[in-house]
């Protein structure tokens, strides 16, 4: 087989590696929130390449061999001026249906895990959480149910261009509409009209 060395190949994003000062709380949080389970864990990730002990844990919630890798660096501390440094701002996981997103919100709310910001952004409805290390983790659903349609919306919609973050929503108000029989699309339309605006505004500082 001849190698393709002329055109750009489009690989899929496979996993993220996160450093942490304490692996166990991270593993437990991602297990609880996203259904991650440990695929492998070692205290010597460098293997034969180094005598340094580097505890690393690989976790996944689907068929991939791992979706996240936690590299533990003892003594690692949160950065008080995090907002002034280059970093991964957030990463996201997508549900197949709005019912999954709202059901997960209900389940996590019962465990005391609440999102820091929720919005209908036109192409998607997204809830943002913070993990134990204060990484922002987005869970979302495609409002159109079609990646081509949502991509075209982001590319061409004046509405998106003028307000990419979208309309803030209260998940409990969305659930109430769902329980009254509203469809996912009807909930999206109501959200965009301001029907589910939270009583207490979210702070954009959570993204800083």
Automatic annotation (TrEMBL):
Residues 12-142 form the VOC domain. It holds the Pfam family Glyoxalase. This is Biphenyl-2,3-diol 1,2-dioxygenase. The lineage of its organism: Bacteria, Pseudomonadati, Pseudomonadota, Alphaproteobacteria, Hyphomicrobiales.
């Amino acid at each position: 087989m001849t190698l393709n060395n002329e055109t750009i190949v489009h690989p899929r994003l496979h996993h993220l590696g996160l450093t942490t000062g304490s692996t166990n709380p991270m593993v437990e949080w991602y297990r609880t929130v996203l259904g991650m389970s440990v695929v492998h864990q070692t205290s010597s990730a460098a293997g034969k390449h180094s005598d340094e002990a580097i505890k690393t844990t690989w976790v996944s919630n689907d068929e991939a061999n791992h979706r996240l890798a936690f590299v533990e660096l003892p003594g690692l501390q949160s950065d008080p001026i995090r907002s002034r440094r280059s970093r991964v701002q957030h990463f996201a996981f997508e549900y197949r249906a709005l019912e999954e997103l709202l059901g997960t919100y209900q389940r996590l709310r019962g465990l005391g895990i609440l999102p820091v910001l929720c919005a209908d952004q036109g192409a998607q409805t997204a809830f943002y959480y913070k993990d134990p290390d204060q990484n922002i983790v987005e869970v979302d659903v495609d409002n159109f149910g079609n990646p081509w349609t949502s991509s075209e919306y982001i590319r061409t919609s004046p509405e998106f261009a003028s307000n990419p973050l979208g309309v803030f929503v209260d998940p409990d108000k969305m659930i109430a509409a769902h329980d009254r029989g509203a469809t996912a699309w009807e909930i999206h339309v109501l959200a965009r009209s301001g029907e589910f605006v939270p009583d207490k505004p979210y702070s954009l500082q959570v993204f800083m």
